[in-house]
Amino acid sequence: MNLAIVFFLPLITTYYFPHVTTAGADYSSSPSVLTQGSSLSVEKKDHLVSPNDLFTAGFYEIGQNAYLFAIWFSKPMLDGNHTLVWSANRDRPVNGKRSSFSLSRRGNLVLTDVGQEIWTSDTQSNSTLKLQLLDSGNLVLTKLENNSYLWQSFNFPTDTILPNQPFTKDTVLISSRSSTNLSSGFYKLYFDNDNVIRLLYRNNEITSVFWPKPWVLSWDAGRSTFNNSKLALLDSQGHFVSTDNLTFTTIDYGDALQRRLTLDVDGNIRVYSLNHRSWRVSWQAISKPCAIHGICGPNSVCTYNSESGRRCTCLHGYKRTNHSDLSFGCEPLHDLSRDHENYDFIKLPNVEFYGFDYQYMEKSTFKGCKKACLNNSNCKAFQFTFSEKLGSFRCYAKTLLFNGHHKDTPFHTYLKLPKSQVLSYNQLVASKSGSYCSSSTVQLKRTYEKDSANGSLKFMLWFNIVLGVIEVTSFVFFYYITRQPSGTTTQTYLAIATGFKRFTYAEIVKASNKFREEIGRGSGGIVYKGILPDNRVVAIKQLHEAVQGESEFLAEISTIGRINHKNLIETYGYCAEGKHRILVYEYMENGSLAGNLSGNQLDWHNVFEIAPGVAKELAYLHEECLEWVLHCDVKPQNILLDNNYNPKVADFGLSKLFHQGVTDNSIFSRIRGTRGYMAPEWVFNLPITSKVDVYSYGVVVLEMITGRSPTYDQSCDDNEKLELKRLVSWVKEKVHEDWESLIETQIMDVFNPMIKGEYEKRQMNGLLKVALQCVREDKDDRPTMSEVVKMLLHLEMDV
Ligand SMILES: *[C@@H]1O[C@H](CO)[C@@H](O)[C@H](O)[C@H]1NC(C)=O
Ligand SMILES: *[C@@H]1O[C@H](CO)[C@@H](O)[C@H](O)[C@H]1NC(C)=O
Ligand SMILES: *[C@@H]1O[C@H](CO)[C@@H](O)[C@H](O)[C@H]1NC(C)=O
Ligand SMILES: *[C@@H]1O[C@H](CO)[C@@H](O)[C@H](O)[C@H]1NC(C)=O
Ligand SMILES: *[C@@H]1O[C@H](CO)[C@@H](O)[C@H](O)[C@H]1NC(C)=O
Ligand SMILES: *[C@@H]1O[C@H](CO)[C@@H](O)[C@H](O)[C@H]1NC(C)=O
Ligand SMILES: *[C@@H]1O[C@H](CO)[C@@H](O)[C@H](O)[C@H]1NC(C)=O
Ligand SMILES: *[C@@H]1O[C@H](CO)[C@@H](O)[C@H](O)[C@H]1NC(C)=O
Question: Which spans are transmembrane here (predicted)?
Answer without folding.
Answer: 459-481
